[in-house]
Every structure is written in C-alpha cells, then in structure tokens.
Write the structure tokens for this entry.
Amino acid sequence: MRIKFWGTRGSTPVPGKDTIIYGGNTTCLEVDLNSGRKVIIDAGTGIRPLGSEFVSRREDVDIHLLVTHIHWDHIFGFPFFLPIYRSSTRILVDGYDLSMKGLRYSFDNKMGDGLWPIRFEELKADIQFIDKLTHGCLEIDGTIIDSIRLRHPQGGLGFRFREGDKTLVFLTDNELDVKDKSFSDYIAFCQEADILIHDSQYIPEEISRHRGWGHSDYQSAIDLALKAHVKKMVLFHHAPERKDSDVVKITILCQDLAKKKDSNLEIESAKEDSVLVL
Ligand SMILES: [Zn+2]
Ligand SMILES: [Zn+2]
C-alpha cells in the first residue's frame, strides 16, 4: 500500500509562505493498493492537483472515492477535479451516508442558483454511490476496508484498511475524549495499526475552549496511539493558523512525549505531497 498526501490542512485552504512544508490544501489522500487499484479519501482542495496529474498522464480514471463527511473542507475540491468532466471516468463513492448529497450540492442544483456554473447531472463521468461502508465492510481486490463513526458535529466515518498483514487507519475530524466510552472503541479500531493518521488540530492548551467542535489535540491522539500499540502515528488536519514552524515544534514535542513513555511509537506530521509506503 502506498499513501500520498494531497491535502493535510483542516477547515480551510491556507496557501502562502508559512505553509510550504506541510501544505495548504485541505483533506485528500491517494491510497494505492498493491493490486494497483486507487482509493481516494476525501475531496478537499488537494483533489484538484491530483485530478490535474491524472489528466497530464492521459490515463482513464477508475477509482474509489471514500468520503469521511461532507463539511466543506472535505468536498470543496470536487468541482475542480478535472476527471469528472470526462466520459471515460468512473468513480465509485462510498463512506459517509450523505456523501453523494454533499458532492452533488457543491454544484448548481437548480438552473442558476449561483453556487457553481455546472449542474451535477451535466458531469460526464460515471459517479455511483455503492453504499457498502455504512452497512459493513468494503472489499477491494482482497483489501478489507471497514469504518467507525466519528465524534464530530453531524457525524462522519473513519476508515481502516487491512491489506495482507498491514493495517492503515485514517481518523480525521474526530474528537477524542479519554473519559468517554467511545475512546475504548477507537482503541479497538486502531489496535496494532502500522500507521494511524489522526486529527490533531489543537494543542492541549486550546482544547478546553473547543470542546464539541469535533477535533482532537495531539495529546489525546498520542494517548490513543499508545493504548492501541500503533507503530507509527501521523498528525493530521493541521489548524489553518498553524505555520510550518509551529507544526515542526508540535512534532518534536510529540516525539519527546512518546520517548518519555518509553515507547517506540514513531510520530510525524502529514506533509502535502509526501508518500508513505506500507
Ligand atoms: Zn475537516
Ligand atoms: Zn469536519
């Protein structure tokens, strides 16, 4: 499995000189399974450059798109994903139960409602909602993907990929609370994952005034990774105001925290355009 980050930022895109290292695009990951099948997670603004790459390679696009939830930062790139304007494209959508509604509503819904010049019905691509993950697991070429409900306003889904003996867990827009009974469910879901990519939008000093906003601080994300015996944790959904220098400091702080607990947990922060191989 190969994982490429096309967008790592939370809430809103933040281009500029302070976000060159970790990136300014919002959530989008490309997961290449060993079979060659491509699974894209979320259609934040990071999906735009991914679409441009598909077009420049002149290859037909046949992908799964898993949507965690339909807050703007997770679907706003979809109208800019050039393959949707080609009849050779096929997209199988799964994930959050309102995924298709969210993708559809990012276009013009009635003639001239002003949101976007084109209606969803006018797209040339074949886009289907396969709706497996809210009822059970999704199997793609032997890789088993299952889901867990997120603690997030209006809900959402996190995903776990199991390919052979390798496990990747992706949980963003998830508010961990070690005192809540859901915490043990997340521990079970992440158990012995090779890679856990988790929301760590906040620092511990910020979390008390953002309770109920649906995001975690890095301390609780580390607690989860340690309790679940994860091998590598990747901090994700960086706050829009966080500069590259802030993310570097947070990453070092987290690595020190793990070392103090005598843990071998590897910790890094998700960087746009970077690749992890599992
Ligand atoms: Zn988000
Ligand atoms: Zn959200």
